[in-house]
Amino acid sequence: MNQLNTQIEAGVISPEQLLKHWQGHRSLTRRVIEAFPEKEFFEHSIGGMRPFSKLVSEMLAIAVPGLKEIVTGKTSPFNEDLDFDGKKENVLKAWDDSTEQINSYWKQLSAERFQEQIKLFGQYEGTVVSNLFYFIDNEIHHRGQGYVYLRSLGIQPPFFWER
Amino acid sequence: MNQLNTQIEAGVISPEQLLKHWQGHRSLTRRVIEAFPEKEFFEHSIGGMRPFSKLVSEMLAIAVPGLKEIVTGKTSPFNEDLDFDGKKENVLKAWDDSTEQINSYWKQLSAERFQEQIKLFGQYEGTVVSNLFYFIDNEIHHRGQGYVYLRSLGIQPPFFWER
Q1: N or C: more exposed end of chain B, with fewer CB within 10 A?
Q2: Domains assigned to chain B
Q3: Quick check: B151 and A114 CB within 8 A?
């Protein structure tokens, strides 16, 4: 049994399942974006934290650019300074565009690459799969913060378990 | 190639890696618990949400009881009403005890069981691995909310990327 088979033998989740897991989370995040009133999406903050629009910019700056770099091997500097012209509509458009691009790049990612060591955005070292989990976990983390922002505005967020 | 091999062939993360991933998150959550002043841990709230102590109770009520049920097949009703006698020290003790128990039960979970369909706590249907991801994701979600609580108290939380 070669090294690839040894690695593969121990796997607990398939690439297709991981994509579905990620897109399920992204679908929930999209509904959290929708739940914000436009003004509060760009301005509301607690304890000096970034407004939810900035947290979403970070998610968008990580997801497609990160996956694209994993697939193509071409490094770009990390840039989360996205311009939405103060409109949630533009954010949702960027979100949906990312959804399509993620599906498209994912198809180009072969199963044996998930354990490959990489250095993402020129600085984040780890395996491909550890970087992908970082993308997802970071989104869950910041979306959880968006839930508190919504609650502090008296708005009920979507249920966490609905994907 | 039989069905088991087909499933296994596509795996992107090993059981050992998933345990390390989970315990890394749990280690960060422990430091978030530590960062709270005792009174605020049990009382501070935003927008009518539960204080962080209650969110941590939920995490504890899910982790070991959930994993134990997966491993042993014995169902218990979900119970998140844990008593810490108003002391963070007791919470941290319960947390560390859970850390050991998770490591111990994990050793009894064979790789081929991760894709098995189960119904956890008598109600949550899905594969073993989808339930385990739910445990982890739910912890990240609520811990992110704890970050906002800390920030609203003027306290700097631990860095998200330090596990």
Answers
A1: N
A2: 14-152 (1.20.120.450)
A3: no
